[in-house]
TrEMBL record:
Lineage of source species: Bacteria, Bacillati, Bacillota, Bacilli, Bacillales
Residue ranges of every copy of the N-acetyltransferase domain listed in the record: 1-145
Record keywords, A-Z: Transferase
Pfam families, alphabetized: Acetyltransf_1
A molecular function GO annotation: acyltransferase activity, transferring groups other than amino-acyl groups
Keyword field contains Transferase: yes
Annotated PROSITE patterns: GNAT
Protein name (Swiss-Prot/TrEMBL): GNAT family N-acetyltransferase
InterPro entries, sorted: Acyl_CoA_acyltransferase, GNAT_dom
């Protein structure tokens, strides 16, 4: 198992995984759209993507988006996307990707790493708590549009 920070050299692998991720969330497959989207993120440096390999095979990724905390005057990272191929789930790839994201947040001296998940995504919640995340109970999140 290896995890690397994605570059344009990994575009095909990340796009394939990103397309599978979107399909998991009930979206239609759009590999060309996935390639365009990921290429733009990497080219513009809008996000940081880590990709997990089993040998030379891409099996998962995590994508982080930057944000900021005005009060603490520090960067935050949002763990927006995490996906591991079904065929290798339960083998530790998700945990390793999350730990890489946490390490990256620490290495960049960020205030922290945020994520959200569905209330019924119990397996993911267990994994997040296992690696050190705590469920936020102090704040409410609102969404518009």
């Amino acid at each position: 198992m290896s995890i690397v920070k994605a570059t344009l050299n990994n575009l095909g692998s990340v796009a394939e995984l990103f397309d599978l991720y979107r399909i998991f969330y009930k979206q239609k497959s759009d590999i060309d759209g996935a390639k365009d989207f990921i290429k733009e993120r990497l080219t513009s440096e809008d996000s940081v993507i880590f990709i997990a390999f089993d040998g030379g095979n891409p099996v998962g990724f995590v994508q982080l988006y930057p944000s900021f905390s005005s009060v603490s005057m520090k960067r935050l990272w949002i763990l927006n996307d995490l996906y591991v191929k079904e065929s290798v789930r339960g083998k530790g790839y998700g945990e390793k990707l999350i730990k890489q994201a946490i390490k990256f947040a620490k290495d960049t001296k960020a205030k922290g790493l945020l994520l959200e998940t569905a209330a019924d995504n119990i397996d993911a919640q267990k994994l997040y708590e296992k690696v050190g995340f705590t469920k936020e109970t102090t704040y409410f999140y609102f969404f518009a549009i």
